Amino acid sequence: MPYDVTPTTLQGMTHFPPPAEELRLLDAELFHLDARRTQLLRRRAWLVTALQTPVPPPPRSTPAARPEATRAPGCRTCC
């Protein structure tokens, strides 16, 4: 061991796993990333569809017509 490397330095160094273990870890991480990407793409497609679907306008309110029977028999209106 070189003289400029102390045990404290060795404990703080990053541990690199063997290549087979690192490959397994990378494959697992890529699998999770692919699943998340699929989830986000589906959500995006739903949002695009929801925003492109036209929303029907609310029904127009029309003034209620007064029936003739509610007027007094001798009442004359100019309307």
Please give the structural blueprint.
Blueprint: H1 7-12, H2 19-52
Short description, anyone?
This protein has 79 residues and is mostly helical.
What labels describe this entry?
79 residues, mainly alpha, 0% strand
Describe the structure.
The chain is mostly helical and about 80 residues long. The chain contains 2 helices and no strands. The protein is rod-shaped, with a radius of gyration of 38 Å. The model has no long low-confidence stretch (mean pLDDT about 80).
Strand content: under 5%
End-to-end separation? 109 Å
Oligomer: single chain
Number of E-type strands: 0
Sheet with the most strands, sense and barrel status: none
Q: Mean pLDDT, nearest integer?
A: 80
- Which consecutive residue ranges, at least 5 long each, have pLDDT under 50? none
Helix content: 40-55%
Shape: rod-shaped
Helix count? 2
Please compute the radius of gyration using only Cα atoms: 38 Å
What structural class do the secondary elements suggest?
mainly alpha
Instruction: Give the H and E element order.
Output: HH
